[in-house]
Amino acid sequence: MPIDPPNSALPRMKARPEESGRPGEFELIARIFAPLARNAPGAFDLTDDVALLTPPPGHEIVLKTDSLIEGVHFRRDDPASTVGRKALRRALSDLAAKGAEPAGYLLALALPRWPDMAWLEEFARGLALDQEEFKLSLVGGETNATPGPVTLTITALGFVRNGALIRRKGAKPGDAVFVTGKIGDAGAGLAVLEQSQHTRQTNLSSPRNYKFLIARYRLPAPRLGFGRSLAGLASASIDVSDGLLADLEHIADVSGVRIEVEANAIPLSAGLRELWGDGPEVRLRAATAGDDYEIAFTAPSAAGAMIRRTARQTGTEVTLIGRAVSGRGAAFLDGSGVEIPVKRRGYTHF
To answer: Where in the sequence is the domain holding 88, given as residue range(s)?
Structure first.
């Protein structure tokens, strides 16, 4: 769930390296970022202008670009290691929803004066952890100075078998609608951070739930293993970034169907219920909060048993939350099947 950008009136001037406590551009690349490209032969140790990527036989290249902006998608006091990892994981979540295997990523980084070398080193350590976990490497990018906020742009590169890409378009009347994981935790985590900042108190009595919700906001978990298994099972798929209802409406619009989501079926964590409670209003808040980075997808009803088996094999929680029917748009239904009015379906940038 993006946060409101801070008010600022920074001077429109290029930050000089000596003013920020950082080395020059090429030394910065060599010291901080080249080690992240060491295991990618096509990256040429970041000493060239381009990278070289060759897909395996019978595969196509999948590309996804995602930006993370200070004051919009992360807070300045977030740990630098989680900032880099969140930026990468957001893009990987899109690959997961398409059934793709990650192969590498490009990083464009625009820095104001305040991030020093200690911040950048921690940022790179976070990326290194995720590179090891998700088996990919940095293959190139760009660094710039900016008078504005820190801006990170990740372009994730992946491979998918020819013709196996799972698109938003493809849902049909009669399909079941599923979502992985829990919904609303990231929005709840942001609420906890903002509440703590202003009052130094929260509605949480459990330290475990406090840490859990903040971690869910700062560090999403892309469902890559499960996403790859959806090829041939899912009729349409999308990662939940702007909000569950908003993103399911994208599937509905391009597929030409109506998606009906049952409020009582929305999966909520114990931490979220302690913070916000339960009931239709809470479930609507969770379904419109955004930043979940789970996979919402449709599939023929007959595929339900295979989906549950795949979920067990990949250790992924999957919940049946609704259905696709004839019509248009996405609807949120109460326990009696009556549509609940929704003023705001999710986050919009404009």
So the answer is: 17-161
